[in-house]
Model the fold of this input.
Amino acid sequence: MAPSSTGRPTTIRASSLAWRRGGTILATDYVAAQRRIASLRAEVDRAMASFDALVMPTVAILPPRLAELDDDERFFALNAAALRNTLIASILDLPAVSLPVQAPGAPPVGLMMIGRRGEDLNLLAAAQAVESCLHDS
Done:
């Protein structure tokens, strides 16, 4: 783990900053967010009932250089951009898998497949089928 210019490893710095920011969230806002997430989960469950997986890039940006992470505001902006797509499955409590799809020598790129709640094995089977198609081409 590479240290930032502050001398602390980047993950410890990020956790510390996130912890401080979290202290500004009111309990009523937290409860309202949890209720909204529960509503979104039900809405997404209904929307995904007619298909096997939602497919998108795993990460919306290429990995930043370590020097780009030294500034706290820039760190949080890049972190939010990097986690934007994966947070969908995490927050909605859905299974997801990422398949590497970059060409040899190209920057790392992943294809994320998000499955229906509780259907992890079906998602893995679909991902295996997609992966075999990718390797055949």
